[in-house]
Design brief:
Elements lengths: L23 H10 L10 H9 L9 H12 L3
Amino acid sequence: MRIVLVRHGKPSGVDTRPISGRDLGRWVRHYDESGITKELPPPLGAREATSAAGCVLVSDLLRAKQSAAWLVASTG
């Protein structure tokens, strides 16, 4: 059995400016709700691992689902 961990694609619309500690919760909620950009295609190694996989599992975060869908679509 082979398990491959892949990080999600680049989040879209995430503010990278410094924030205060009291704003961290709001920032994390926004980050968790963000989708991905399609600036960079999935890396070749990730596409190869996906095409050889029997299944692909993802978290329920939007960017994870979008990343997996894009990765699976790019292998075929």
